[in-house]
Amino acid sequence: LPGLQALAIAFALEVSVGKTNTVMALNNSNVLLPCVFTTCIGFQDLIFTWHFNSTEMIYHGKIKSKASEPFLVARNPRVEFVGSTTGKDNNISILLKNVEFSDAGKYTCHVKNPKEKNAEHNATIFLTVVQKMVEADNTVTLIIVSVVGGLIGLLILFMLIKRVVLFIIKKTQDGKKECLVSSSGNDNTENGLAGSKAEQKAPPKA
Asked: Residue limits of the Ig-like domain (predicted)?
């Protein structure tokens, strides 16, 4: 069915920039813009491009097949291809050199695979450029971790004390039982109750 074929093609090619779609870079530094693609049926003469803010093409490459690495068609002088497509992952990441504040914005990795009836997919990553990295304030996190750790420690201590107390109580009760048994035996012997050692046979009648 045409509908099922279109659905299969739509899900055959996938493009991803990783778990997070935001990247922060220092001014005048180099920053990696990650992108990988997957395909269920392979690829032939695949085309991939990187766009800045959806309009400016900063990298254009082609890949003949899985056995060959991408070759450059066009690129911005400050962009370098750092991926590889002959290994396990189809990595088409780029490196943006000497980042400036004007480089902040949206970067889109676009892939087109002729083998899948020119199925096209893309993924977007957002770049923020800062003058200096600000250390995250982890005070609240540390307080929470300390409180949770303290509560767990108290719980473990309580359980240990409980076990010790129960052990002492059990030993004390066992000792009392032994005393009662011993006392009962003495009483029976002294009073000459049935079954005791003090019981004697009546003298025979003359």
From this structure: 2-126
pTM reported for the whole predicted model? 0.60
Rounded-to-integer distance, Cα 124 and Cα 200, Å: 105
Which residue type does 202 have?
Answer: A
Question: Quick one: which H or E segment has residue 63?
Answer: strand 56-63
| Cβ neighbours around 127 below 10 Å, total | 18
167-199: pLDDT as tens digits:
888 877 766 655 455 444 544 444 444 544 444
- The answer to whether 112 and 37 are in contact (CB under 8 A) is no
For the stretch 43-68, what's the b/e string if a residue is b when 16 or more beta carbons lie within 10 angstroms of its beta carbon?
Answer: beebbbbbbbeeeeebbbbebeeeee
Report H helices in 106-198.
139-191
- The phi and psi torsions of 129 (rounded to 5 degrees) equal -110, 130
Q: Which domain holds residue 75?
A: 14-130
